[in-house]
Each structure stands twice: as C-alpha cells, then as structure tokens.
Amino acid sequence: xxxxxxxxxxxxxxxxxxxxxxxxxxxxxxxxxxxxxxxxxxxxxxxxxxxxxxxxxxxxxxxxxxxxxxxxxxxxxxxxxxxxxxxxxxxxxxxxxxxxxxxxxxxxxxxxxxxxxxxxxxxxxxxxxxxxxxxxxxxxxxxxxxxxxxxxxxxxxxxxxxxxxxxxxxxxxxxxxxxxxxxxxxxxxxxxxxxxxxxxxxxxxxxxxxxxxxxxxxxxxxxxxxxxxxxxxxxxxxxxxxxxxxxxxxxxxxxxxxxxxxxxxxxxxxxxxxxxxxxxxxxxxxxxxxxxxxxxxxxxxxxxxxxxxxxxxxxxxxxxxxxxxxxxxxxxxxxx
Length: 336
Hints:
Layout: H1 20-27, H2 48-52, E1 61-64, H3 70-81, E2 85-90, H4 93-101, E3 107-111, H5 117-130, E4 136-139, E5 151-152, E6 155-156, H6 157-179, E7 184-188, H7 214-235, E8 242-246, H8 261-270, H9 278-281, H10 283-290, E9 301-303, E10 306-308, H11 317-335
Parallel strand pairs: 1-2, 1-4, 2-3, 4-7, 7-8, 8-9
Antiparallel strand pairs: 5-6, 9-10
C-alpha cells in the first residue's frame, strides 16, 4: 500500500489550527468520564497492534467498511493478523480485492457504495451468505468537507455517506450480529461533531441547500454517527449486541482529500509534531471491536481508547430518537 496523502479530521478550524500548540491546549481540557464504564490500559500513543496483543480472534468474523485505505485498512490488517475473518469493503470490488490481497490472514473483498442503497443491500445480502453470524461491524468509511453542496436523492452527501449508508447497513446486518456470541457495532465518528449546527441536526435542511458549509455538513454527519449509536444501544438493550462510537484523532489519511491545499501543505510539513500515526489512529476502533472488558459496554463515546462524555447535543436522547425515525423514513424501501 502506498502511504496516505491526506488526513482524517485535518485542522477543522482552518489556518489558525496549523500549530501544534493550539491542539495541545485543547487536549489538556478536563475529561469527564461516564460512571461504570471501565478505563482501558491504553492511551493516545497505543497502536491497533498494542490493543490486540494476546487476543486470539480465530473463529470470529468482522466487516470493515472503507478497508482499502487509512484507518480502515489498518483495522482490517490487524484484525486479520489476530485471526479474524475480515470482510473488507470498498467502493469497488477491484479496490476491495487489492486491499484484501495485501494483508496477512483470511479476508474477503466485497463492494460497498454507501451512497447507493441498492449496493448497501447487496453488500449485506452477500455478507449474510458468507457467514451466519457477524461478530464485528466496523463502520469506518466516510467523506469529509466536500467543498460544494452535493445531493444524493435529495439528501446532502455527507449525511448519506457517513450516516444513512451505515444506518441501513447496520439494520440489514442486525440478524447476523444478534446471532454472534457477542456482536459489536463500532462507528467511527469525529471530534468534528462540535462543528454541527447549534441545534444539532437540521431536519428541515437535510438537502444542505440552505447555507451550505463543508465543516458544518461534515460535523452534522459526525454528530449523527453518535446519536445513531445512542439510539441503537437503547434498542439493543437485553441482547448480546453492543454499539459504541469514537473519535480517532488527527491523522493523515485520504479522508482529507477535499481540504484546501494550504491545510494539506501544513499537515505535510508540521503534522508530525501533533498528529497520530495511522497505526495509533486505528487503535480506538480496534479496541472497541475486540477488548474483552467491553463486552457489556454499549452506547458510549471513546477517544484514545477510553470513554468520555461529549456533552451537549451529543447526549440528546430525544434528538437521537428523532434521527432514528427520520433515517428509517429515508431508507424504508431498503430496510426489509
């Protein structure tokens, strides 16, 4: 695999965030931990290999979306290295096949275009045929800060790709997750939820036609990622399936391909002073997918391999319930 050229969550505040000091200051803020959720033995410097050391995943099946590059590729590589059968998806079968063939272990490539709900249904159907149970669904793929408003069936692209596609995929695969000994849904969100509209989700503007801003649209989709997890966890109470979300940190991946050239240039020159490596960036999602101590933990938000309370609209359960209902309405023809 060639090294990634861009990055996840690249300096969302623009040129003012080009210095490491600004980001470091943010990291010193007090972290409020949720009661009853265990702290892990890992931190911001831990890698995906670190958090899975000594864990044997033989006999388990995991699906990783966006497995052809960045954090998805590293997650697939490490899960397969530890013995899991990893179903790696990409927007085309050719990309998925190339990625799967380049890692050690058992992998199966599957095409998945999250903006095409027929493709999502076809992917879920294929996965169900490959395995009667699914231990891990790692919703990793996404787009970030598309510069101009784009719609798919009347809905803004970030919202469709980052939220609705994964919402539909999860709903279609719930029978396989429920059939597993302990199914886990892991959704890669972002600290960019802070860029979402002040009131949360703009249900009256899901097309993005009114006052489109790339950061706001991306932030709204990342807020939706965690609200989806909160409502999913509530609906899964009493089952063996858990759902959690995470922010991976600032990492150099292809997700940032739409960012302004000056932000990308800054990242290439000084990013090493404050960014995580891809190996460390993938740690939290792999930790949530595999750590035995999290078997009963559901509905929480994590960063640096530990839980925290994001506050505000991220913890608005009424908003989460409304998002669920709206998402069902927008995907209803494909749910059954």
